[in-house]
Write a sequence for this structure.
């Protein structure tokens, strides 16, 4: 990652296109904001990242993301993924449209984090795995917005009230001609 050498300056955290190549170990410093594409060309998988911003469409290519914390805030445009997306702890989606490309989403995989949803939707999500759901389900921590590919629009699943905890899985299936 780029790093400043002058004592009075800060390390860069905002990148436009970010591509990784060759055999060196790649460690991403938080916070990281990529306003365009994030890709792995060759070499080992980069370790740890914390977010994406920007108004244009973004593509995240070539490796399954397994992140500790992430905030996704894209009021316009789409983030397209070509692998599963995993979060160990906190996943905050303030305003984003994610296209999963028929991959999975794994939330709170180490059972110590939070899921916070504010706005937008998920497209082409094969399966949602939510580990250790909260004991009190609210519109913020238990709303799931699936885009309907066949009929258009958003199919919202919202769970409210008390829960036994544990994990859950949701599979969203589009059926052509059904509403």
């Amino acid at each position: 990652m780029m790093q400043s050498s002058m004592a009075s300056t800060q390390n860069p955290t905002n990148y436009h296109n970010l591509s990784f190549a060759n055999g060196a170990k790649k460690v991403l410093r938080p916070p990281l904001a990529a306003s365009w594409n994030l890709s792995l060309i060759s070499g080992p998988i980069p370790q740890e990242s914390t977010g994406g911003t920007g108004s244009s469409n973004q593509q995240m290519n070539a490796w399954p993301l397994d992140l500790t914390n992430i905030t996704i805030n894209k009021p316009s445009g789409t983030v397209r993924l070509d692998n599963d997306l995993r979060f160990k702890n906190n996943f905050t989606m303030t305003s984003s449209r994610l296209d999963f490309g028929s991959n999975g989403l794994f939330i709170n995989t180490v059972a110590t984090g939070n899921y916070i949803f504010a706005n937008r939707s998920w497209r082409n999500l094969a399966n949602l795995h939510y580990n250790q759901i909260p004991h009190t389900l609210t519109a913020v921590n238990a709303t799931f917005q699936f885009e309907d590919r066949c009929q258009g629009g958003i199919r919202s699943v919202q769970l409210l009230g008390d829960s036994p905890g544990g994990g859950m899985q949701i599979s969203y299936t589009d059926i052509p001609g059904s509403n």
